[in-house]
Amino acid sequence: MSITARLLNIYGRLLDHYGPQGWWPAETPFEMIVGAILTQAVSWANVERALSNLKAEGILNPEGLRRVSEERLAELIRPAAYYNVKARKLKAFAEFLYRRYDGDLQRLLSLEPLPLRQELLSIYGIGPETADSIILYAAGKPIFVVDAYTCRIVRRLELSVGSDYRAAQALFMDNLPHDITLFQEYHALLVRLGKENCRREPHCADCPLAVLCPTTQFDAGGGMGYNIHKDH
DNA sequence: ACCCAGGTGGCCC
DNA sequence: GGGCCACATGGG
Q: What is this structure's pTM?
């Protein structure tokens, strides 16, 4: 079975099991970007409170973020954790947007994927995953987003030699059609899989990928099934 | 009282 | 260029 067929097989199983996820949950590209920064290493439920606070304050837009003080911003996003560094990150993005694009988000997002990625990575607080998320979900351009779940799944299913960010991204992008909806749904489904299965007991009782895990029979611990997300 | 969330930047070697 | 660490709230 080719890599492409395996990746599509996995996608089909996840889609059948969970259904379309409809990511990213945001009303505007700007809200998507703010949410992407706020959700770094934090559960989405916490991010929603912070976003709600920003909306209520009327500053969930480039001009609002530019004008609010970093201290006030930190208070508003407190539920999203790491609020001091994240306030700095949000201010850094807003300042970047005005300094380089006159506050025009669409102009930034209209860059080609690679130049856009370079621009985003130059901003304080935007690393590979956040940059790729913005490209895929805010700019709507085909780049594959990799997160911790994705790396673990690639590793557990032995889908490629390496399982770091670059290897995982290359795996999907070199072996799948560059289709926006496919990439958007695939990443969302991998996250959904991770959320549902990562630490629940019993491991993988209903994991839609259990049958694909090559090392199931070697799993020590007495036959409670196998969790592809659990590292040894 | 733990453990961990849809990471990133700063150090250190 | 990889391996730690700080950052910090809320839910299980």
A: 0.93
